[in-house]
Structures are given as C-alpha cells and as structure tokens.
Design goal:
7 helices; 74% helix
C-alpha cells in the first residue's frame, strides 16, 4: 500500500549450545580421575591412584545412569546432540556404561584394600564372572550395531552400511551369548567346566590333524 513502510525481516534466533551441567560433572569426574591416576603413578601416591580410578568409574556410571533414566545418550555436551540415538540405543549404551563404571569402582575398592592381585588370581582360576561381564559388554555392542539410528535411510545406506553392520553385530551378539553361557556354566558347575576345558587341547589337535590330512 502507498505510504506504508516495508517491514524488515526478523532474523532467526541464534541458538547457543550451552554445556549441560550433568555432562560437565561427567567429564570433570573422568578428567579428574585420569589426573589422579597419573599423579598417583608418577609420584608413587597410591591414594591418588585409587581415588582416580574411583572418579573415572563414577563419571562413567553417572553418564550411564543418565542414559538409562532419560533414554537419551549421556555425555552430551549440548541438549540437542545425538538425538538420532535416543530410545533403545541410548538405553543399551547406558547399561554398558553402568556396568563399566561399576567395574571401575569395584577395582578402586580392591586396590585400596590391597586385594587387587588376589582378585585377579581368583578370576584366573574361576573366570565365570569375567566371562559374564565381558559377554554382557560385547552383547551390548553387538545389539547397538544391529540397530539403525533415527534419520538414516536410503538404499545405499541400507546395502553398504546397515546390512553389513547388522550381520557383524549378530555375530558379535552370538559370541557374547556364548561367553555369558560359558561364564554361567563355570559359575554353577566349575568341575564340569574344568573337565571340558581340559579336553580342548585334544580337540584342537584332532582338528588340526584333520585339516592337514585334507
């Protein structure tokens, strides 16, 4: 209309990705723990090393707990990061982080009490808990490989990324299930497990002889 002044366009608001408070504490705990471990090792201060391992485990466990509760990836510096992994991927990653953090905290306790070497010796003789824990972590990794993050679609992505990754994830998941099963068997019936382990060298030799003959 004549005489009407043109309205200037309103600029879009600028979004600033502020660092999330909980992510700050997660990273701060891990960084402080790494510094404590380094100081304890270099300066021969066992207390610093033990507390550093504890802080690392606490930071990892805090990130895992956040992922489990919110169903969104922990350790996000900004609130809108890793949205494609919300839901089941975040839950699985959170459970894995919780397990890893709990193992680190338990290691710090064993180190502080002077029982670390005896615990390792016990696991060398009775590896059931180690097999179960390693199988659980590997199973989580395999499950994450089989899931498709949100927003990723297309024929090329499916053929060249998603399908090979899902196949590899299924293999990892199967191996993880086997490790958990072996760990549970060793835990419940260690004598039968030991007898089976004793037969492995003979079975391996038999397999190698059959391969060389063919």
């Amino acid at each position: 209309m004549p005489g009407r002044r043109p309205v200037a366009p309103v600029p879009a608001p600028v979004r600033h990705a502020a660092v999330r408070i909980i992510a700050f504490f997660e990273y701060a705990a891990i960084l402080a723990g790494l510094l404590g471990v380094a100081a304890g090792y270099l300066l021969s201060l066992p207390g610093f090393l033990h507390f550093g391992v504890f802080l690392i485990g606490a930071g990892i466990a805090l990130g895992g707990l956040e992922s489990v509760v919110t169903r969104r990836m922990g350790f996000r510096a900004a609130a809108d990061e890793y949205e494609a992994y919300a839901g089941a991927p975040a839950l699985i990653a959170g459970l894995m982080a919780l397990l890893a953090g709990a193992c680190a905290i338990a290691s710090a306790y064993l180190l502080a009490e002077g029982r670390w070497q005896s615990a390792l010796a016990r696991l060398a003789v009775r590896p059931g808990p180690a097999l179960i824990g390693a199988g659980a972590l590997a199973g989580g990794a395999g499950a994450l490989m089989m899931l498709n993050p949100r927003g990723r679609r297309g024929l090329a992505w499916t053929l060249f990324v998603r399908v090979p990754r899902a196949v590899l994830g299924a293999l990892v998941l199967a191996a993880a299930a086997g490790a958990v099963g072996l760990g549970a068997w060793e835990w419940l019936d260690p004598r039968a497990f030991d007898r089976w382990v004793d037969t492995l060298p003979r079975e391996f030799d038999r397999l190698m002889r059959s391969i060389t003959r063919s």
